[in-house]
Amino acid sequence: MSFFTLFALAVGLSMDAFAVSICKGLAMPRADAKGMCICGAWFGGFQGLMPLIGFGLGSLFAEAIEVLDHWIAFGLLAIIGLNMLKDALSGGDCDSCGSADLSVKTMFIMAVATSIDALAVGISLAMAGDVNIWAAVVLIGITTFCLSAFGVKVGSIFGDKFEKKAQVAGGVILILLGLKILLEHLGVLA
After folding, report:
1. Which residues, including other chains, have CB under 8 Å from residue 173's CB and lie 6 or more apart?
2. pLDDT of residue 60
3. Nearest-10 crossing angle of helices 3-27, 69-89
4. DSSP-derived 3-state class of residue 32
């Protein structure tokens, strides 16, 4: 998998965390470096860890489902992407994540909630083959850290103007990546 593809995947996965970070920034009277780094570390850490766990699980079952792996990868990414689009377009607001609370309990719950899709992506990466999982994990973690920290600042400055757009962009990216994996395995793309 190329660097560009992995980077696009990292950006797509980080959009949920970016949107939640915007909400955190909305609730903070002033976004400081500490708050930005706390959000970035929690979200980046979990977004990096979950694909590794998913990759391990996917590798255990790779031989058994090798014939269908590209369909499974496409299906998982498409479902995650469509779910992100549905959430973004449903008109929900930031009430669930909109407190300025950065406690371990709150951040743990939010980090897990925003990274469940990364677990499924890790399974997809195992099915896709030709993936350096360590490079993917590091890139996903760093990208999510940066975008989450930036999201806190954006939220404190611009409000929820960008939240829905970030979720829509993330959903579209994941759907397109799933389609790319499918078309490559079917021989449509070289």
Report:
1. 8, 9, 11, 12, 15, 81
2. 83
3. 30
4. coil
